[in-house]
Amino acid sequence: MNLDDWRSRINDLDNQILHLLNQRAEAALQIGDLKRRQDLPSYAPDREAEIVSRLSVASGGPLPAASIRAIWREILSGCRALERPISVAFLGPRATFTHQAALQHFGSGAAYAPSRSVADVFEDVEHARVEYGVVPVENSTEGAVNITLDRLVDSDALICGEAYLNVSQHLLSQARELSEIKLVVSHPQALAQCRSWLAQNLPDVPTQDVTSTAAAAEQAAGDVTLAAIASELAGELYGVRVLRPRIEDNPHNATRFLVIGRRAVGPSTRDKTSILFAMRNEPGVLYRILEPFARRGINLIKLETRPAKSRPWEFVTFLDFEGHRDTPTVAAALNEIEGRTLFLKVLGSYPAA
Question: Which residues are CB-contacts of 15 (< 8 A; sequence separation ≥ 6)?
Fold first, then answer.
């Protein structure tokens, strides 16, 4: 076959794909009607995770799994919007890393609402101004995002998903040379991720915290003496050029984000559960709390301790582990450790990213 033959073949395949996509969209419309009658949410994280996982594993072709996941994310997003568009709050303005993580998770079919702070994202979800929110929770370089952990202690919102985003930080400025820069602005986490680069390249230039990396880019757009640390997308959106690319200290810099909502999520093919607990101040207490997990073969993923805001010198511990709270093994472990803690709160079970 020559080039024209292959192009003709691709045209035929494209028409078949379009026909099948429209059939899927018709099915989604019918499903949306049934969900409305039964008062069910249009977004089903467990079902979507199962679809993407199954198709990524079973593709059997040359397309890499990451490409297949990206394609199906948009197919699911478009069909979900036909059932009923969902609203998603994120730490704004547009082009923050949280915005990018939200797009990666929900696709372009959702209605996005920027919030001024992480606390505002929680409040938007809690007061039903939006159905879901996306917030950063930890970075591979700088660790936990404490405001998110603190809000999880008191919030009624449930964790219903997660997303990981590889983070590349760029120095954005209208200046032509580093010597013209008098101030560097960005979100505190972004500044911390570039601490060594700033010390080596702009040692005498002060830094200033702002609410988000995108807000920093917006400020830098109007002042030639300012530089922002932000994404390339933020630079494109606000018209600020990249003066120095990839200035993050760790080339493997990544951030984990949580999706929060008001409904619990059912089990999928591979789940995580997040809990928090307070414990007595006595020898061996942490061992006794964690022992039921080890006895049942439940893998612990992350342990993080934070000061309790309500009482000085008391702490709460956050724990992520594999499994869903509704499965018998996990339910039995949670029931057992509840009697060994002063306080236990299940933050949510959700498909693992």
Answer: none
Q: Identify the active-site residue in 97, 257, 277, 293.
A: 257
Strands 254-261 and 300-307 turn out to be unpaired
CATH number of 87-167+254-261: 3.40.190.10
pTM: 0.83
Q: What is the model's pLDDT at position 310? A: 66
Per-residue pLDDT tens for 113-139? 999 899 999 999 999 999 999 999 998
* Band of residue 247 on the pLDDT scale cut at 50, 70, 90: very high
What does each C-alpha distance from 217 to 6, 19, 100, 224, 226 come to in angstroms? 45, 43, 15, 12, 9
The pair of structure tokens assigned to 105 is: 């998770």
Active-site residue, 257 included: yes
> For residues 142 and 103, which has the higher predicted lDDT (pLDDT)?
103
Topology (CATH) of 170-244: D-Maltodextrin-Binding Protein; domain 2 (3.40.190)
Q: Residues of CATH 3.30.70.260 domain(s) within the chain?
A: 271-351
Q: Looking at domain 271-351, which CATH architecture does it have? A: 2-Layer Sandwich (3.30)
CATH code for the part of the protein at 3-83: 1.20.59.10
- pLDDT at site 312: 62
Positions of CATH 3.40.190.10 in the chain: 87-167+254-261, 170-244
Look up 343 and say whether it is catalytic.
Answer: no
> Taking a C-beta distance cutoff of 8 angstroms, is the pair 215, 244 a contact?
no
Which residue among the candidates 98, 141, 255, 273 is catalytic per the annotation?
255
The 10s digit of each residue's pLDDT in 260-283 is 999 999 998 899 999 999 888 788
Q: Scanning the structure block, which residue is given the tokens 């702002």?
A: 210
